[in-house]
Amino acid sequence: MSGLRLTVTDRGEDFDATGAAVIAEAIAGAPGAAIVVATGRTPMGAYARLARDLPARSASGLRVFQLDEYVGVTPDDPRSLAGWTRRSFVDPLGVDPDTVVWLDGLAEDLAAACRAYDDAVAAIGGLDLAVLGLGPNGHLGFNEPPSDPSSGTREVPLSDASIASNAAYRPELPVPRSALTAGLDVLLAARRVVLLVSGAGKAAIVHPALEGPVTPEVPASFLQRHPDVVVVVDRDAWES
Ligand code: GLP
User: Fold this and answer.
1) Which of 16, 69, 128, 137 is catalytic?
2) How far apart are the first and last CA of the chain?
3) What Rg do the C-alpha atoms of the chain give, in angstroms?
4) CB within 6 Å of ligand 1 — which residues?
5) Which atom of ligand 1 is nearest to the CA of 169?
6) How far apart are CA 184 and CA 141, in angstroms?
7) CATH for 4-223, among 3.40.50.1360, 3.40.50.620, 3.20.20.70, 3.40.50.970?
8) Dist CA 233 CA 19 (whole Å)
9) Residue 234, CA distances (Å) to 66, 92, 151, 171, 239 in order
10) Residue 8 Cα, ligand 1 centroid: separation in angstroms?
């Protein structure tokens, strides 16, 4: 039996509230949970609700891991995904930024930076929770197609589809050509995955990802083999 539980919501508040509730449920009773969190537009409303609704400091002990980062972008650059993670999740939830495991896209030795990240994941016994969005080409983090389930934390050249979708975040600035991503291996090993999918722009990929053949060409399709995935998808994505 599939470990995938699907909730289809209305767009907007219903989606955000449901996303916040499934994240809150996953971290309830696990104050020191190791959690990797996506940036992107999809989870922003859920994070804002989470910060508003969780009792003060109840999330401050979370061990947060960054999901992905552009190569060559400083933390104070408006494109920085570390900065976005901090503004949207780490600071509003009262997590000490010094405890976050960041992906260092400025490291001289990027492979060593990825190993350090994987070592930190291993040292904590693996991730408890991965909160992920769905790329328009089926990527998770920046595990671009093709990515097989053993793909590690690494530097990835960005696909044209990802460059086009990411350009919308900061239209005035060019999208870097490569990124570091948490490996599909560590994401799929998370004890629970929450996948948030919204908007008509995801309609063409959400059904292949969740119901189509399991293939490296759609990296998110490997979630079909995961024992504990909660998917929240709005009607615009599910029914378009
Ligand atoms: C981006 C990021 C992912 C994100 C996904 C969806 O390219 N690499 O981490 O989850 O694509 O983004 P959005 O929520 O903006 O649609």
Assistant:
1) 137
2) 27
3) 16
4) 38-42, 67-68, 132-135, 141-142, 162, 165-166
5) 15
6) 8
7) 3.40.50.1360
8) 9
9) 25, 25, 29, 26, 8
10) 19
What pLDDT digit, counting tens, does each position of 195-235 carry? 999 999 999 999 999 999 999 999 999 999 999 999 999 99
Q: Is 144 a catalytic residue?
A: yes
Cα gap 111→162, rounded to integer Å? 22
**Residue 198 phi, psi (nearest 5):** -140, 155
User: Residue whose CA is closest, atom 12 of ligand 1?
Assistant: 40
- Please write the tens of the pLDDT for every residue from 19-55: 999 999 999 878 899 999 999 999 999 999 999 998 8
DSSP-assigned states of every residue in 24-86: HHHHTT-TT-EEEE--SSTTHHHHHHHHHHSPTTTTTT-EEEE-EEETT--TTSTT-HHHHHI
Active-site residue, 207 included? no
Distance 141 CA to ligand 1 centre (A): 7
Average pLDDT over every residue of 89-112: 97
Full-model pTM:
0.97
Return the best residue to mutate from 11, 15, 42 for the ligand 1 pocket (most ligand atoms within 8 A of CB).
Answer: 42
